[in-house]
Amino acid sequence: MAESKPKSFEEGLQQLESVVQMLESDGLTLEQSLVEFEKGVKLAKDLQVQLEQAKRRVDVLKQTLNGELETSPLDSDPT
To answer: How far apart (Å, rounded) are the C-alpha atoms in residues 36 and 51?
Structure first.
């Protein structure tokens, strides 16, 4: 059963927390634990990318002369 990529950062974080809870439980076999660990690593990587994109977006916010905020478009997703 392949799990779809989270639609939002919050959804991904919730999925990662669920994976951690499963790994901390005593009911998984070694193989199940490895599958969940791999899923967690992928989720953590995706979340890190989202955080980096958010940071870049914040970095490009700038104050204009009249006090309004403007944003510059980011480059397309490199992945």
So the answer is: 22
Q: Write the pLDDT tens digit of every residue in 1-30.
A: 456 777 899 999 999 999 999 999 989 999
Number of separate helices (H) and strands (E) present in the chain: 2, 2
Alpha-carbon Rg for the chain in angstroms: 18
Residues 75 and 79: their CA atoms lie apart, in Å, by 11
Q: What mean pLDDT is reported for the chain?
A: 83
- The angle formed by the CA atoms of residues 8, 9 and 10, to the nearest 5 degrees, is 90
Domain spans in the chain, listed from the N-terminal domain onward: 12-67
